[in-house]
Specification:
Layout (H helix, E strand, L loop, with lengths): L2 H15 L4 H4 L1 H7 L9 H14 L3 E5 L5 H7 L7 E6 L2 H13 L6 E5 L2 H10 L5 E6 L6 H10 L1 E10 L15 H15 L3 E10 L2 E10 L4
Parallel strand pairs: 1-2, 1-4, 2-3, 4-5
Antiparallel strand pairs: 5-7, 6-7
Length: about 220
């Protein structure tokens, strides 16, 4: 099997199950024009985030890592009237591209893009007394994944869901001798999810247009 076949299958599934709104299709070209790396979630992954948000009945969503707003757009479309998504982006230029994409897709009214280092912004959200988030999607620098997870738990409630993207690293996550900072950060977050008393978690390997990777998913339990 090859990445070409995985992409062909993803394209078939996308056309059959998750046809993009025309505005969605404009996000990737706009990101490319702005010089953003092509590391957005795939169409099928975006639809999965959308469905998880709907199944969760999420009214408040937190995203760590905005990029050009593609995943935020999918999740924002799952929000009910009055719902809110806060997405965190360290780069001001990327944040502006995301805001333009969100506006073109008709979801800017329910999405707030906050600019700054995510650890600072997460701390600020806690200090503001932000209401708990029903769903958190972590997809930023992998070295800080375990730190983002800790803040996500603090900003969640029992029954919230936390998703961490890009946890397989083309299989490198299984290499205990790796010195790659992204792999080390990923191993830290997986091990933290496994031992945390307030989480019940799993991880899924995936193939598709994004190659060989996967995500981890955790359910937030009540405090003991």
């Amino acid at each position: 099997m090859s990445e070409g076949l995985w992409t062909e299958v993803d394209t078939y599934f996308g056309n059959a199950l998750a046809p993009e709104d025309p505005a969605f299709g404009s996000i990737r070209p706009a990101n490319a024009q702005a010089g953003l790396p092509a590391i957005d979630v795939s169409q099928m992954q975006g639809k999965l985030l959308h469905l998880l948000a709907r199944m969760q009945g999420a009214r408040r969503i937190l995203e760590v890592g905005t990029l050009g707003g593609y995943s935020a757009t999918w999740m924002a479309q799952a929000l009910p009237v009055g719902g809110r998504l806060i997405t965190l982006e360290i780069d001001a230029a990327r944040a502006e591209t995301a805001r333009a994409n969100l506006a073109r897709c008709g979801v800017a009214d329910r999405v707030e893009v906050r600019v700054g280092a995510a650890l600072d912004t997460l701390r600020a959200l806690a200090e503001e007394g932000a209401a708990p988030f029903d769903l958190t999607f972590i997809d930023a620098d992998k070295q800080n994944n375990a730190n983002y997870l800790e803040w996500a738990i603090k900003l969640s409630r029992p029954g919230s869901v936390i998703i961490v993207d890009n946890v397989v690293r083309e299989g490198a996550v299984a290499d205990a001798s790796s010195t790659d900072p992204a792999v080390l950060g990923t191993r830290r977050v997986i091990e933290a999810m496994g031992r945390h008393p307030r989480l019940s978690a799993t991880a899924i390997q995936t193939v598709g247009t994004k190659g060989y990777d996967g995500f981890a998913l955790a359910y937030v339990l009540p405090e003991a």
